[in-house]
Amino acid sequence: MKAMRNLADYIEAFILGKLEREREEIVVLKRNEVAEAMECAPSQVTYVLGTRFTVERGFQVESRRGAGGFVRIARVPIKTLFYEDVARNLDAETSPQELTVMLRRLQRQELLTAREVELIRSFFTLLYPEVEEQTRVRLMRSLLLRLANLN
User: Fold this and answer.
1) Could you tell me where the DSSP H helices lie in the chain?
2) What is the pTM of this model?
3) In whole angstroms, how far apart are CA 7 and each of 12, 67, 72?
4) What percent of the chain lies above the pLDDT cut of 70?
5) Of the four listed, 17, 58, 113, 126, which is most buried by Cβ atoms within 10 Å?
């Protein structure tokens, strides 16, 4: 068994333990309470949340600071997070070339095939000059989020 070497490892293990003990996909914690339990500064908890509980590792973190503040950590399938990230980054100024870059990212993550990338890119290219910006964005976001639920 590999020994934990630093405080960040202990904080990560503490939070993961909470997720597993509560047998939930979401856990809500108070940053100050975690810091007190781990005998560290709240900024160290923030560091661990930002570096160990990332989208790439399958986590979504929502944080509210202040007296009523909390940290909500959700375990989410990585594929869903990648699709949501691309959908969130689409806006009225997204060009067909920028969308192609986003779709290739999904292809590199093995979430889309080359054929699917080409089909979506072609669809967007056809929509681009014909459909009003906000409608185009809404349609593309819907398409991507639907794909996330199908895979």
Assistant:
1) 7-21, 31-38, 42-52, 78-89, 96-108, 114-130, 133-150
2) 0.57
3) 9, 25, 21
4) 95
5) 58
